[in-house]
Amino acid sequence: MFTARIYVTLKEGVLDPQGGAVMNSLHTLGYQSVKDVRVGKYLVVSVQASSQEQAEKQVNEMCAKLLANPVIEDYKFEFVGE
Amino acid sequence: MFTARIYVTLKEGVLDPQGGAVMNSLHTLGYQSVKDVRVGKYLVVSVQASSQEQAEKQVNEMCAKLLANPVIEDYKFEFVGE
Description:
The structure is a homodimer of 82-residue chains.
Chain A: E1 2-10, H1 17-28, E2 34-47, H2 52-67, E3 73-80
Antiparallel strand pairs in A: 1-2, 1-3
């Protein structure tokens, strides 16, 4: 069993209204020192595979097909433990 | 300027319907090898601070007050670059 940590982020230059809303809330709470906030997704996916290469191939496909929108989002992933 | 990468995840044992929905979708797409999916949040926050200790203190407070719900979520963060 392989466990992948997947990070999905908006590409640079893509407007992030959710991040803007979080930043406004932080300012309202008194954290004027916050200059930028970007919000992304974090997924932990456990995959049964015969090898890490196999698992990598599958996770890569899943990201491209479902987990990220390749038009506006980037993704990266790493495997942890076994 | 300090940039923090913040990971917010549901605590173990807390039901994750969003993760369940993603897993079902992956199964529907043919990825039967997926055994578990947990969905969390990933935030990148830029903070102006005089030292990394100061920035750490602030980010920690922000997580506890706004970015994570300490009742059902855990958070961790790390600083990248300068």
